[in-house]
Automatic annotation (TrEMBL), chains A, B:
Organism for this UniProt entry: Streptomyces monticola
InterPro entries, per database record: DNA-bd_dom_put_sf, MerR-type_HTH_dom, MerR_fam
Pfam families: MerR_1
Protein name: MerR family transcriptional regulator
Keyword Oxidoreductase: no
Gene3D superfamilies: 1.10.1660.10
Domain HTH merR-type: 1-70
Keywords: DNA-binding
């Protein structure tokens, strides 16, 4: 199909499509004449993935380029690609080197030990977790660590559901792409659900029905 | 304290502190002479909150300003402030008006009904959830809706833990600030945990230990 048709099907403007090609997010179409390129269903699918990561996942263009390179890198063992794809989603933050950082790091190590998680204590996700806990500690919410096991059980439940879905529904060749979609969009799904469940839980706790927002 | 001391205590550079004051995120210090201002512990605490929302929560300065206005707005019923604080965290995205959007919206309505959640079907969190599900549908993962109840149970568990923590640990005057911290940093905590649990679940499923990342 021509770029105009690709644009119509996906709702992405032609100049934006050309920008994604220049940035290496989308492979170029096959040239059918000096100034006309032909695009396939594979382009359409990749374009939808880019838009989902951008619009729903909130990833930046540079982060998407990195994730897509991991998706396209053949011959890497599944769990390594899984690691690479998800590690690259971790934000980079200002580093602190204080008591809260040390305590939070220790708490994360103990949690991983206690849950028997087969994961590296030095992984980027563990570092992200420690960073969030340290920030809470600095705000006077070190006691939040007491609910970590509730969070961990909920996270295990979600991870089982995710992997079960992948195992049942996904062809091997789509595994890595699905992991990226599941990690980024699944995060958006869970975060929205948590906010809904908060409204419900606080309505029950405070005995009120939420009124229409004003 | 002077601005230099505030900077030393929080690790935030003086020009950055002055920028936050100009942007209305941080109240100005009390002028003790024409070019010297005095800051209090309240300033220090607010500054730590700003940094946590920025560094760990990944919020933009404009979003933080909105959230802090909700925190500082007195006399609003708790659940309304809760609503306002969390609603403002929802991202604004490109809108679609297609079959996937309609199906996802219906699925969210049914989920809220089925779980008996006391929440508004037209709330921003419900819209965010529908948007994420619609994006998955467009990528061929409409079947992901089958695991929504697993996600919902995990979200309920996390929400109960959050509200339990607030109920046990938090003074009424800190309630709104804690809600903001819990929503933004709690999200970072859960997302990092989900990634850790994924590594563990896939190590179990594929029968491998994750190797050190290369």
């Amino acid at each position: 199909m021509r770029v105009g048709e690709l644009s119509r099907r996906t709702g992405v403007p032609v100049p934006t499509i050309k920008y994604y090609v220049r940035e290496g997010l989308l492979p170029p179409g096959e040239l059918t004449s000096p100034n006309q390129a032909s695009y396939t269903d594979t382009h359409e699918r990749r374009l939808r993935l880019i838009r989902a990561l951008l619009d729903v996942g909130g990833l930046k263009v540079a982060a998407i380029a990195e994730v897509l390179r991991a998706v396209d890198d053949p011959g890497r063992p599944v769990h390594k690609v899984l690691g690479a794809a998800t590690e690259r989603l971790g934000a980079r933050h200002a580093e602190h080197d204080d008591q809260e950082a040390a305590e939070a790091g220790a708490a994360v190590g103990e949690l991983i030990e206690r849950r028997g998680w087969r994961t590296d204590k030095s992984s980027p996700a563990a570092a992200d977790l420690a960073r969030a806990l340290a920030a809470m500690g600095r705000l006077g919410h070190g006691a939040f660590r007491e609910v970590l096991d509730d969070y961990a059980e909920a996270a295990e439940r979600v991870a089982r559901a995710d992997l079960g879905y992948v195992d049942r529904k996904v062809a091997v060749e789509d595994l890595v792409e699905t992991t990226v979609i599941g990690t980024v969009l699944g995060e958006a799904v869970f975060n929205a659900m948590r906010r809904l469940a908060h409204v419900d839980a606080s309505a029950r706790l405070f005995g009120t029905r939420p009124e229409a927002s004003d």
